[in-house]
Design goal:
Elements lengths: L19 H5 L1 H4 L12 H30 L3 H25 L4 H11 L8 H9 L15 H12 L3 H11 L19 H12 L5 H32 L11 H7 L6 H9 L1
Helix pairs in contact: 3-4, 3-6, 3-8, 4-10, 6-7, 9-12, 10-11
The protein binds protoporphyrin IX containing FE.
Amino acid sequence: MSTEDFPEGAKTDFSADMSYGDYLHLDRVLNAQEPRSQDHNEMLFIIQHQTSELWIKLMLHELRAAVRCIAADELGNAFKMLARVSRILEQLVHAWDVLSTLTPSEYSNMRPSLGSSSGFQSYQYREVEFLLGNKNSNMLRPHRDAPEALARLHLALAAPSLYDESLRLLERRGFSLLARKAPQSYVYQSSESVEKAWLEIYRHPEKYWDLYQLAEELIDLEDAFRQWRFRHVTTVERIIGFKPGTGGTAGVSYLRKMLDVVLFPELWKVRTDL
Ligand code: HEM
């Protein structure tokens, strides 16, 4: 076929049918980029954030469903969804390569356009954190004036996290786990009984194969999430050094603290015990 031939049979009349653009609402998606300056690099900044938010939207969709599946003892389905979330995170890890083509001088030129907007205010990201069990209720504060986002975050804060549901599953399978939550707090407290349960599972994978697989899916996910956080802070240091963030935090030092967050603590501890 020469470059000038048109593929035979390809549909060209969409007066009565749905086209690709209709189905995907590309009119809305592709018109949602509105740079506030003439700066060439602002488009990269906007698209990098928008695409990240879209992938985070899919992560939420998969994670919520995975939590429901675990609660319903449908582990096969949950594994499929958790594997997808890890792959999405890996993709977001690689996406930092595109953003790191932005130099400090280029960023400084477009910095005024950003005002005080920052990923720190991403309600979807915060919902992912809450779903994964990193429940810091102070993080509701940036959403005080956004009732819909706030309502979603309150729900996610109060709902059982992915790890909570995994531990409930362990209990249904006969492991006895002691009270796991500190009173009046959403923050997960690690416990010896949970560590013991995972240890038993890791020592006898053939006996507890699906729980063992669940543990590895969770580790995969946290591993990928850690890499995302690490690439974020490194990219940020590369671009803005130790300047404060647009969201008002100290910047790199705040993000470095976030590297210490552990989502599934006993699953990491058990590796030392084995
Ligand atoms: C040049 C690019 C970027 C810079 C300089 C940057 C810088 C920062 C800084 C300094 C913070 C701390 C909060 C603040 O004071 O603003 C932050 C938080 C955050 N950023 Fe970025 N960022 C960049 C790109 C991105 C992208 C592409 C995403 C993707 C969604 C993102 C998502 C986030 C999230 C979710 C937080 C909150 C992290 C947490 O609280 O644990 N950032 N960013």
